[in-house]
Amino acid sequence: MLTKIIKIGKLYQQEELFENFAKTFKSNLLVTLYFDLGPPVQYISSHIIEPPENLQKLLYYDQKGNVSGKSPTVSITFKNEDGSEKIRKGVEKAILKLKSFFKHPMLKDFENCINDEFESIVLDVEKLLTDQKNLKGVYLTVKLLRHDSELFPSEHGEFVKAFIDNILKKSVEDGEEGICTFCGRKKIVSATVNEVFKFATFDKPGFCPSLKKDDSIKVLPICDECKSQLQNGANKVIQELSFNFLKNQNPLWVIPSIIEENSEEILKNVIQRIADTSKKLKDFANSEREIELVLSEEKSTVHYDFLFMELNQNQQRIELHLTEISPTRLKKIVQSIDDSKRRIKIDDLPEPSLGMLWKLYEKPSGSDKSRKDYLALVKSIFQEEPYSYSRLLWYFMRKIRKSAITEGAWWRKLTYVSFAAILHLNQINVLNLRRGEYIVSSSEIDQFFNSYPEFFNLPWKKAVFLTGVLAGKVLSVQYAKRQATPFFKKFKGLKMNMQDVMGLLADIRNKLQQYDAYGKKSDELLKTAAEYYLQSSKSNTTIDELNFIFTLGLAYAGKEPFKKYEEVEEYEQQI
Fold this sequence. Notes:
The protein has 19 helices and 12 strands. It is an alpha+beta fold.
């Protein structure tokens, strides 16, 4: 993966070395300290300015935590506390961080100037920020006055030299002669990949030979040239090839590669299409189909790495890394999403996208066990690996049960979309539901089952589903007569066993007769269900699968072809 990012960095090699390292950022306020270059260097004043169009002119390099001294542009952070000291403390800390950049021998005059004018600088910046309502995304930088010109940091040679020296300081101090992992050449190398990617903790003792940190250079040695290209590629990926995935702090980085010689222009075109798509469609999970459709339109020699990241302050953690995802696989996923929606035939049904699956898993985050299960499902989807059907249904039913109790009719839509998800996941070989026997029949009920042969592949499933349809009729009739559905209590919180479900048939018949709603159509449904029970051998199923099929029957009670079996139908959307 790092090699692929270096290749992207080479592809977009910058004319000036500093451009490989200078990063961009999202600024709400940019406070600028103006210095006259003199000599001597003099602090003039502070102002809030509009950020330049090219933010790399500010020579920014993120340096949160204890890391400082690398950049003449720093963020100003404020602690969550009240009182006048809040702004002052934040400003003082930022100026001290900025001052550490000027410890470079070529910039000592600036360090001395800040020491002399520290209090007045703090006071000036504090005044600028006191009346600001939004103190998020505040940055501090410098501009330099020479005669009638105002210079950004990148326009002053000594600043650029200090910036590069600071960025490569560890490489120079700790470097030694060796073989670079990435270019294979004998050069001065260092163990500094983690300066580009915080998740690359190869300098930890656990990764090092003999568990000695001093040996970390032997794990992943990198030369300065490759490190420069790695940083340039990282900037490209993070800024242009990144999507939100469910939450802002959980981006998805898409890293394209191509297995073809002399394919630089093709790769550039692929990168440009991803970048354009990222600008238009920010959220991968909820715009999955549209984004995957774009990615699937590439040649078969193109592949993608998906990095699902978790960003927290100065930390980066890879939640999931998927490699070599082909356009063919993405095309199959898109086609399957379309097919599942078409087959379900429910108006305004959400797509069974990664975002919808996340909601069905109750939006797991952090280190939750359900988060791991969800990411395992994501992995199975992209890499065509099997996933536990019983585990999937456990999450679906957990959500549907809660919804049935607290969210009114929403359980019905959750059941439809869960059904669509099962059809979708089976079509892309994540599940392994085998097709059942096709029944030649003019019966609309059999034709309905024939529409989903992989799902209704055993008689007991058809029997339980029809029991759910009949139970749905009872609920509709009850609501029409009493504006209440006490029959729902019979379902035992949707945790029934097979005996419970079969026992409902007698109660259903009694209730429909009691409400004078038992007609020929209901009789046909009940007899058909009874026949399927008779054909059923002992089922080896789970409570979740049994109750999901029953709930699906409840949801379909008011839909074709069962709608015409409803004697009372106008209330079905309310229960």
